[in-house]
Design a protein that fits this description.
The protein has 241 residues and is of the alpha/beta class. It contains 10 helices and 8 strands. Bound molecules: phosphoenolpyruvate (PEP). The site of phosphoenolpyruvate (PEP) has 13 residues, from strand 8.
Length: 241
């Protein structure tokens, strides 16, 4: 399976900034072969999808609502994302789990909604620094997998240690390998398609460390925050594949 390099643009940039970033990535990609995904803010998905049309670069959302429709002021459904050209949606990012109090059960409901609308969910899991210091990382991530994926998950999992997100800190290669092996074992044990589920690593991935991280067993790509906001940096990570 080709690696998937996914950029999470979070709440950055106005439409013209995102359009320029999308053009820069499209222009620089050439015939590089990884699967590439960008997840702009909701309001810019249509513009970015139009710029990337025919490029092979996929577009995704950063969240969706758990319900198909209804009286949920300010919310965006999975079908609305699909309607704008999205193929993927990031769910259960640690920033949403912290800022919006999203639980595993809510993430599982969103996974169901995303799949029903034809989107591929990317479910984020990962431990805090305190949990790792206490040796609880496997218990925490195991619990998140059990609670967030549902019974027949066929999307993508992103392992993102919270303490590595946006901090420049990265786990050792041995720790990344060990957590990815643990996640694979949990997926195989609990999911009918567990052996084939792609597992991304996320947390301070940069052009300078991507090659080493992306060759770790069971690392099927990267979810990239900060470095996905600069076309040359994101392309550097793609080239590292
Ligand atoms: C993220 O927020 O998903 C992320 C991985 O961010 P960064 O690459 O900036 O650590």
């Amino acid at each position: 399976m080709r690696p998937l390099i996914a950029g999470n643009w979070k709440m950055h940039g106005l439409t013209e900034d995102s359009a320029a970033l999308a053009r820069g990535i499209r222009h620089g990609l050439g015939d590089l072969s990884p699967e590439v995904l960008v997840c702009p803010p909701f309001t810019q998905i249509a513009a970015v999808a139009a710029i990337l049309e025919g490029s092979g670069i996929a577009v995704g959302g950063q969240d969706c609502h758990a319900r198909r429709l209804g009286p949920h002021t300010g919310e965006v459904s999975a079908a609305m994302l699909r309607d704008l050209g999205a193929a993927y949606v990031i769910l259960g990012h640690s920033e949403r789990r912290a800022d919006q109090g999203e639980t595993d059960a809510l993430v599982a409901a969103k996974v169901e909604a995303a799949v029903a609308a034809g989107l591929i969910p990317i479910v984020c899991v990962g431990e805090t620094a305190a949990e790792r210091a206490a040796g609880e990382q496997e218990a925490v991530v195991g619990g998140q997998l059990a609670g967030s994926l549902g019974a027949e998950f066929a999307g993508v999992v992103a392992y993102e240690p919270i303490w590595a997100i946006g901090t420049g800190k990265v786990p050792t290669i041995a720790d990344i390998a060990s957590m990815h092996a643990f996640i694979r074992a949990e997926l195989v044990r609990a999911q009918p398609e567990g052996a084939g589920i792609r597992i991304l690593y996320g947390g301070s991935v940069k052009p300078g460390n991507a090659a080493e991280i992306l060759t770790v067993a069971e690392v099927g790509g990267a979810l990239v925050g900060g470095a996905s906001l600069v076309a040359e940096d994101f392309l550097g990570i793609i080239r590292a594949c």
